[in-house]
Design goal:
There is one protein chain. The strands form 6 sheets. The chain has a 7-stranded mixed sheet with strand order 5-4-9-12-13-2-14. Strands 8-7-6-3-10-11 form a 6-stranded antiparallel sheet, with no helix packed on it. Strands 1-25-15-16 form a 4-stranded mixed sheet. It has helices at 9-23, 27-31, 161-166, 169-173, 181-197, 226-234, 262-265, 297-312, 353-358, 403-411, 416-423; strands at residues 2-5, 57-66, 68-73, 77-83, 86-92, 96-101, 104-109, 114-119, 121-126, 133-135, 138-140, 143-149, 152-160, 209-210, 238-242, 245-246, 251-252, 291-296, 321-329, 335-342, 346-350, 373-379, 385-392, 401-402, 428-431. It has 3 domains: 57-159, no CATH class; 167-262 and 400-431, no CATH class; 291-392, no CATH class. By secondary structure, the chain is an alpha+beta fold. Helices cover 23% and strands 32% of the residues. The protein has 11 helices and 25 strands. The longest helix has 17 residues, at 181-197.
C-alpha cells in the first residue's frame, strides 16, 4: 500500500460527484434542514434557513416485506407527509403507526385514530440532540423514509456514512477488545470503502444498500459499542482506492490460511488488488480454521438433488453416487471444479457455487463453510460409497480481507494500514473527507 496521502484535487473532484449525487437524493429531505448525528435537528417550518444535511449520507433499505411500521423516538420527532407535491408536517413525542392502504400510506396514533392518509411518502425526523428513531423495536440514527411498495412498506434509513458504519462494523467483526483495535479500524475502512463504492448500485431504487449480507449487515444503534465507535472516529473518511477508483473491498470471516483471486472464486473480472495471499496462520485461532462435514451417500445425494431441482425448476433424481472428483483448484487451494459421477450421469460444479450444492449435515439450512476442502470417500466391501467426508479450512468466500486474520495480526502488533495492505494488494489509503 502506498503511503496515506492528503486528498488530491482528483479526489476532491470525485468526492464532489458523490456530494452532487447525495444532494440529488430527495429534494424534500434537503428542505428538511436536517443535521445528522452531532447537532440539534431544527424544526421543519419555524426555524430559519442555513442549516444543512451532513454528507456523505447513505440510504439503507431496512425492510420491504412488512405491512406496517411502528414508530417511536427518544424525544419529539416530526412526521412529514408528502402527496402530489403537497406537504403536511406533524410533531409528536408518542408512538404512531404507518400502514399501507391500497398502495397509499396512512399514519395513525396509538388509539388507531387517523392522522393523515393517502400519502406517497412519510419521513420520520428526530428533533433534538442524540434523539433516535425506533422502528419496529430497532433504534436508528438519522431519519426514516417510508414508501409504499405493492401492499407492503419500504423502510429506508437515511444516515450519515460514519453513523451507518457504527451499525455495520459490530455485526461484521464481532465484539472486540482494545488489543484488537487495529483490526476494527481495518474493518471500518473496508466497510466504508464498500459502501462508498456501491452508492449507485441500485440506480432505479430509492436506496443505496441493503441491511443484510447482500451488502453489509446493519443493526442500527443497538449493536454499537465503544471500541468500534473509537475505531470509526480514528479512521473517519479513510477509504481504499485503486487507480483513483474505490475498490470492491470484499471481506470474509476466515480464509483458512490463504485468500484467493476474485476471478477464481466468482465469475468476475480479475482485479489487481484481490489476489491470493497467505496469512501465515493469523486466522488459526478461528473455530472455522478447520472443519469437517460428514454425509452418508443418501444424504449427499439428497442435497445435490435438492439443489439441481431448484436450479432447473423440475424434480430431478441423479442416481446413486459412484465417485467425486476434484478437477481443479484455485491459487488459494479452493476447489474450482468438482464432478459427481452417478449411475445416471456426471454432474459438474464450479467455483463458489459448490458450497451451495453440498451444504451441511450439521445444519441443512447452511451452505458448506468454504470451498477450501479435501474429499474422503469410505466404501463398503462391494465398493459402494457409504460415507463422504469433507474436511476443510476457512469460512466464507475467501476473497479480500480475512477478518479473523486481521484480528490475529492486530494481536501481533500490526497496524490497520499494514493489515489492509496485506489483504488488498497495490491499493492506496486516502482520506476522502
Amino acid at each position: 500500500m502506498k503511503k496515506q496521502s492528503d486528498t488530491t484535487s482528483e479526489d476532491k473532484r470525485r468526492f464532489g460527484k458523490v456530494i452532487k449525487y447525495s444532494a440529488r437524493i430527495g429534494t424534500g429531505l434537503l428542505l428538511m434542514a436536517l443535521v445528522f448525528s452531532c447537532a440539534t435537528v431544527p424544526g421543519l417550518r419555524e426555524e430559519s434557513a442555513g442549516t444543512f444535511i451532513r454528507i456523505p449520507f447513505v440510504r439503507v433499505l431496512l425492510d420491504e416485506n412488512i405491512d406496517r411500521s411502528e414508530i417511536r423516538a427518544d424525544d419529539q420527532y416530526a412526521i412529514e407527509c408528502l402527496s402530489g407535491g403537497e406537504q403536511a408536517v406533524y410533531y409528536s413525542n408518542r408512538p404512531v403507526e404507518v400502514i399501507n392502504q391500497s398502495g397509499r400510506l396512512t399514519v395513525r396514533n396509538q388509539s388507531g385514530v387517523e392522522i393523515q392518509s393517502g400519502m406517497e411518502e412519510v419521513n420520520i425526523i428526530p428533533r433534538g440532540h442524540n434523539n433516535r428513531i425506533e422502528v419496529n423495536k430497532t433504534r436508528y440514527r438519522g431519519i426514516i423514509k417510508i414508501l409504499p411498495t405493492g401492499q407492503n412498506l419500504q423502510q429506508i434509513n437515511i444516515v450519515y456514512m460514519e453513523d451507518y458504519l457504527r451499525g455495520v462494523v459490530p455485526p461484521e467483526i464481532g465484539k472486540r477488545t482494545d488489543e484488537e483495535m487495529e483490526a476494527v479500524k481495518a474493518q471500518a475502512v473496508a466497510a466504508r470503502t464498500y459502501a462508498m463504492a456501491h452508492l449507485k448500485q441500485y440506480p432505479n431504487a430509492p436506496y443505496d444498500l441493503k441491511s443484510s449480507i447482500i451488502d453489509q449487515v446493519y443493526g442500527g444503534v443497538g449493536v454499537e459499542n465503544k471500541v468500534v465507535n473509537k475505531a470509526i472516529d480514528a479512521t473517519a473518511g479513510n477509504v481504499l482506492t485503486f487507480q483513483d477508483e474505490f475498490i470492491n473491498a470484499y471481506y470474509h470471516s476466515t480464509c483458512g490460511g490463504m485468500t484467493d483471486n476474485v476471478d477464481h472464486v466468482w465469475d468476475r473480472k480479475e482485479e489487481a488488488y484481490l489476489k491470493a495471499v497467505a496469512d501465515s496462520g493469523a486466522c488459526s485461532w478461528s473455530k472455522y480454521y478447520n472443519w469437517k462435514e460428514v454425509f452418508t451417500e443418501s444424504q449427499l445425494r439428497g442435497r445435490i438433488e435438492q439443489y439441481l431441482s431448484s436450479d432447473r425448476g423440475r424434480d430431478l433424481r441423479i442416481g446413486r453416487i459412484e465417485d467425486i472428483i476434484i478437477g481443479e483448484r484455485t491459487p488459494g487451494g479452493r476447489v474450482a471444479k468438482m464432478s459427481v459421477r452417478t449411475t445416471n450421469d456426471v454432474f459438474r460444479f464450479r467455483k463458489d457455487r459448490i458450497r451451495w450444492v453440498v451444504g451441511r449435515t450439521s445444519n441443512p439450512d447452511l451452505i458448506l463453510p468454504s470451498d477450501r476442502f479435501d474429499v474422503h470417500i469410505e466404501r463398503d466391501s462391494q465398493s459402494n460409497i457409504v460415507r463422504v467426508i469433507f474436511e476443510g479450512q476457512g469460512y466464507g468466500h475467501g476473497v479480500g480481507m480475512c477478518q479473523c486474520g486481521a484480528i490475529g495480526m492486530a494481536r501481533q502488533g500490526w497496524s490497520y494500514d499494514s493489515i489492509l495492505a496485506h489483504y488488498y494488494t497495490n491499493v492506496d489509503l486516502k482520506k476522502l473527507y
